[in-house]
Amino acid sequence: MRTVSKLLLLAGTAGALAYPWLVPNYYLVYAGVLTVMYAAMATSWNILGGFTGYVSLGHSAFFGLGAYGTGLLITRAGMPWVLALLVSAVLVTVAAAVIGVAAVRVRGASFVIVSIALVSVMNLLVQGWRSLTGGATGLQVPAPFELSRGQTHMVFFYLFLALLGLVLLTWWFISRSRFGGGLKAIREDEDKAEMLGVPTAAFKVVAFAVSALFVALAGGLYAVWFRSLDPIFVFSIVSGVYMVLMSLLGGVRHLFGPLLGALIIAPAGEYFLIALGESQIHLTATGVLLVLVVLFMPEGIVPRLVGRPKGASIREDTAEQRLQEVKG
Amino acid sequence: MTLLLQGLGLGILTGGLYALLASGLSLYFGVMRVVMVAHPAFLFLAAYLTYTLHTALGIDPLLTIPLTVPVFFVLGVLVQRLLLARLAADQVQMMSVLLTFGLALTIEGLLGTIYTGSYKSVTVGYDTKSLTIGAVSLPYDKIIAFGVAGLTLAVLFGVLVKSRFGQALRATIQHREAARLVGIRTDRVTGYGFGVGLATAAVGGGVLALITPFFPASHWAWIGKLMAIIVVGGLGSVVGAALAAVLLGVVEGMVLVTVDATWATLMFYVFLFLTLLLRPQGFFGGRLAHRF
Question: Would strands A228-229 and A139-140 be described as parallel, antiparallel, or unpaired?
Fold first, then answer.
């Protein structure tokens, strides 16, 4: 099994690296960039959602802040784009830590409400602060490279792929660390975890901030890649829902769960856009899919494929059941 | 000063509608600990139904309410029995938000496809005039909206306090096991609770169609406002929600006339965050809202 998964990992990486050279046109490269971006965001969401069980519908707030931060630092402060990207991501992480201190004080439904409110507040602020952000008309970001549109897609495919790799590695490291163990304890029973000496408040804030950091990086890259920021789209609750839906569909307890979900949902979304045009019916499709996943597959696809989780998460079977397996 | 009085008047009138809608949300939370994110989407569904009934059949928006209320009651019972009741008990809080979020997206997409994304509004003879008291002028349609919302709330309170069904509902909210022990069929009552909650969205939709233009995506703004109201009021408390609704309606109205619309909407979130920081269980919630 180990060699099989290693081979699969190798084949997946090779396939991803070769993808832009294999597809016949630049549109498919563009769709690939979008898919990899969503995969990175969903995996990043999963650093909070998967480990701690805190479902945030508002992570698009950090995406938007990262995008606007990068865009504004380039246009207003004249920074080179790499620096702007990094500075903006650090700023968003600090902001997320501050917001996190307040947000993770509440649990369950209240936390979801807070996360929804966060996106709405950011949207209102960015649209209202016209002199800085350009308001509803949006923000234009200058081109980073002197390349054609298609070549730019190629470059950003690899940039987003690198980000995805970084997020996956981070998730993997956390899941094997003491910190990750504490986060999982929070998911299973927060009060017991706290009683056992896990610094739950600090852990939650750190998870919240790390999760926001990578989403902000994705937002910053998006700003430089797409070069036109519209507050309605960038701070959209719907893209926040995409992160949750992708993670749930793939499986929140697994490293590659959100990635798998993104590979299914992002291309499906693009297909809907082409097949049905600018109609709103894609919202209905997303909504129905979310209802179906929540009702019938809250554990996601990965557990169905590989059976019981292997060390990546807390066991769901009891010690007695395991004993039975050994005996049988 | 006149400006503030004007804001106060408008705020109270809008607060009535908020109170009616928030009472529905409190009912859902009371009977099932569910935060129903799709409530505003159903509100706009009702508004669009009112629009269709008005334009196609020429029915007055207020007279469509008796038609939409039974439909929404049945819808509410179905949503609870067929969807929410299936969720695993230990995950119901998080998963129900996602589930109802899916419903909201579904409704928004359907409305956008059928009615397109442009603004729709219902105009009738009496909705453009205003009542002037001193220097304050209050539009008649808002006064009617307040009246309808207030009347519905009064009926709802009457039902909750006096009728046997209301007693069963309150017993289920207060202590499910104890309610079952005295012979209340709590599962069924929970379903009816959702029916009543969604019926408030039907009334709200009829009123909303009368007082403001609407488009499919406008329910997002309402989610934030209503959530802020029920958190400030204390999750699950119908009275708390009503008081918080009028309070926030007034604050919104005052800020709207003195500053601008962006800040007026932001006030809801300011109150939401302050409440969560200072008193996470809300100001009128008591035991039920403890640590949610």
Answer: antiparallel
